[in-house]
Specification:
The chain contains twelve helices and 22 strands. The longest helix is centred in the N-terminal third of the chain and has 37 residues. The chain has a six-stranded antiparallel barrel with strand order 2-9-12-11-10-13. Strands 6-5-3-8 form a four-stranded antiparallel β-sheet. Helix 10 runs antiparallel to helix 12. It has four domains: 120 residues, no CATH class; 83 residues, conserved putative lor/sdh protein from methanococcus maripaludis s2 fold (Beta Barrel), CATH 2.40.420; 88 residues, Elongation Factor Tu (Ef-tu), domain 3 (Beta Barrel); 117 residues, no CATH class. Strand 15 and strand 16 form a beta hairpin. The protein is α+β, with helices and mostly antiparallel strands.
């Protein structure tokens, strides 16, 4: 009864025939041969259901035997072909095909109905053979890979030239020498150069340009003509005014003799000059003479011309039109902003060291101190005059000024760039032959350029790293390069 119930439930049979998960030995679907009675045989799954469920079709009677799955379907479903008699027996897969498709070849001569329920004979035998073949192939592949790797390493070793096992890399570090000079303290500020004198070149009259010296960078001396207008019209006006003056003067003399005015009668004489037109003629002559002088513009001092115009002779110039500027650079001035707390340390006449953009230093002096302090910035201006002997200082140039206030002495002085900090402590790198060692120090004083110390391990003449030493470590060998002073 139990057997008949199992036969009538093909779904339950199909579910129970699948291998349990985790059973690595049962890698292929294991099916039980159909060995039911006549009644159960009619309820067996068909070949199509068997193929769908990946089970071996049953060896049923003649009605079912006429529809066995083909060898092609069996190969596609990874299951053995039906062990049917007749033509199907001749199409059974060979052992080689079975190994390729990973299933047990069917026993064409022995019907499946004669096999007792359980595992198919030869299943574990074929599975073991496949495992042995797989292991042998794995061993062969592994040996091939090892041989190829050894050969490649040997070829690479033969191809590589002999070279040392380790290469010492030394960084290039720039060094400077410590000295024993005192450390000077300065009030430092930046300012812009201004000319000592500056005028705008503006003609008073309109007219056509006759000739000029208004060219960018032109150097002129005091009294040189900067521009000359065509003055024919103004000369005629001047001559006309002179003629009018002489005529009025004659009328005045005649009238005076007729009236008999005394020389001391100044009031009557003035009235007579007005009536005869002599006074107006004098004014007209002076105006014409002045206009004639305005046709020429001369330099009031020696200097350099700055202009953005390209003037040419014959150009029409309007009165009041700016043609350029004249700068006096013989002495230049700089306005330095100082904090209100620093102004008390500065007095007129103090020497000032001025550093130009090309790092050249020139000396100036404090000319005056502004009496007004900026309310917002809390700074006052110190005006410094600098002789410009080589004419190298130009208007608008930014310079740095240092006003000396105090000095201090110590054991050694070295550049500020040598000072580093590790773990919050200041240190320097000292050169010992080709090896650097760091030394922790406590500076006495530090400025923007120099550091003053009193340390027993650092003396004047010692060589200290000042550049390219940020990544250098203690007792590291380096390539030495001295800074050019």
């Amino acid at each position: 009864m139990k057997k008949a119930a199992l036969t009538k439930n093909p779904l339950l049979l199909s579910t129970r025939l699948h291998p349990a998960p985790g059973n690595r030995r049962l890698q292929h679907p294991i099916v039980l041969p159909w060995n039911g009675d006549a009644q159960g045989r009619h309820s067996a799954p068909s070949n199509v259901d068997a193929l769908r469920c990946n089970v071996t079709p049953s060896n049923v009677d003649a009605s079912e035997r006429h529809n066995p799955p083909s060898n092609e379907d069996a190969f596609r479903c990874n299951s053995p072909t039906s062990n049917a008699d007749g033509p199907a027996r001749h199409n059974a897969p060979s052992n080689e095909d079975a190994l390729r498709c990973n299933f047990t070849p069917s026993n064409a001569d022995a019907p499946l109905r004669n096999i007792a329920p359980g595992l198919m004979p030869g299943h574990f035998h074929t599975n073991g053979l496949f495992k042995n073949v797989s292991r042998m192939m794995g061993v062969v592949l592994l040996a091939g890979f090892l041989f190829a790797g050894c050969t490649s390493d040997a070829d690479d070793a033969d191809a590589r030239p002999d070279r040392p096992e380790s290469v010492e890399i030394r960084p290039e570090v720039i060094f400077s020498t410590a000295d024993a000079l005192p450390l000077s303290f300065y009030l430092e500020s930046q300012g812009t150069i201004e000319p000592n004198r500056r005028i705008e070149i503006i003609p008073r009259l309109s007219g056509y340009l006759e000739h000029h010296a208004i060219r960018e960078g032109a150097r002129v001396s005091r009294g040189d003509t900067l521009l000359k207008l065509v003055d024919d019209e103004y000369r005629i006006q001047f001559r006309q005014s002179e003629n009018d003056y002489h005529k009025a003067e004659q009328d005045y003399m005649i009238e005076r003799r007729l009236r008999g005015f005394a020389e001391a009668d100044t009031a009557n004489d003035r009235s007579l000059r007005i009536r005869t037109g002599l006074m107006q003629a004098e004014l007209n002559r002076e105006r014409a003479e002045l206009d004639l002088s305005y046709t020429s513009v001369t330099a009031p001092f020696s200097g350099e011309v700055h202009t953005m115009l390209n003037l040419a002779a014959g150009a029409y110039i309007r009165a009041g039109e700016k043609l350029g500027d004249l700068y006096d650079h013989s002495v230049v001035r700089v306005r330095f902003d100082m904090l209100e707390t620093e102004l008390a340390l500065v007095s007129p006449g103090m020497q000032v060291m001025v550093v130009m953009p090309d790092r050249e230093e020139v000396t100036g002096r404090v000319a005056s101190i502004s009496p007004v302090v900026d309310r917002d910035r809390k700074t006052g201006q110190v005006i410094v005059e600098i002789p410009n002997r080589n004419n190298r200082l130009k208007t608008g140039m930014m310079v740095t000024g240092r006003i000396f206030t105090d000095s201090m002495t110590g054991r050694a002085r070295f550049p500020r760039s040598a000072l580093l900090e590790r773990d919050g402590r200041p240190l320097v790198f000292k050169l010992n032959r080709d090896t650097v060692e760091w030394i922790y120090i406590e500076p006495l004083a530090v400025t923007s350029e120099w550091v003053l110390i009193d340390h027993p391990d650092i003396n004047p003449g010692d060589t200290l790293a000042i550049d390219r030493h940020f990544a250098v470590s203690h007792l590291q060998k380096v390539n030495v390069r001295m800074r050019l002073e």
